Amino acid sequence: MNQFDGAQIPDTSFSEDDGHASEAIRSSLEAFVVTQGSVEAQNVLNALTGQRLLVPVVAHVDSMDDGAEKDSHMTSVEYINSDGRKALLAFTGVDSLALWDADARPIPRASHVVAQSVLEADLEALIIDLHGPHTVVIEGPMLVRLAISAHHAEYLDAALEQACDAIEALDGVIAADWETTSDEIVIFLEIDKPTPTLGPDIAEILQEPNVAVVLDRPLNVEIRRN
Predict the structure, then answer these.
(1) Per-residue pLDDT tens digits for 37-54
(2) In terms of C-beta density within 10 A (0-12 exposed, 13-18 middle, 19 or more buried), how is residue 193 classed?
């Protein structure tokens, strides 16, 4: 079942888009459908970052006059699941959009903007290619990470700085700093004494939502005693 929310669709910055799907995006979606693994999820986010999705809009009739349409406007589309959860629909190409509704008009939007729209509308998820070829539901932390993907590096640095500040305030910790590579994030600690609660306290800090949601690679902690 579809519900049309009447939201206005802003002008697109992809006016030259020919509507063809990105093979990189489709391949990443296919792999994620098969495995549902964290590596494949990250590959989906990597493939979508900086790329566009097609948001469908359809004509919604406002009034009729003698059986003929008098006024209408274009609306974006929400999908309501059988359990009442709402999602926004988006498609990788005009071919997958046509599998859902051949009459829908595709509006190209940056993937992070589409994800931001889902969060701003307080919806549960973003559904990509509802009728295939590879249907993927992006929700929870994965949705947030897509929404911030255009500025992920800045958010990651801010979250790590906040986490290190909190760790430095722990008993026995002298200093905390971090280093990132393409493969991992390492937090380096200098301590003057071990404490029984240090490990659990650090784990709690690193599990805070503002930190956990931006982590896109393994995080390790190395302790150096002063």
Answers:
(1) 999 999 999 999 999 999
(2) exposed
pTM: 0.82
Q: Are 134 and 33 in contact (CB under 8 A)?
A: yes
The whole-number pLDDT of residue 169 equals: 97
In CATH terms, the superfamily for domain 152-225 is Stage III sporulation protein AH-like (1.10.287.4300)
Positions of CATH 1.10.287.4300 in the chain: 152-225
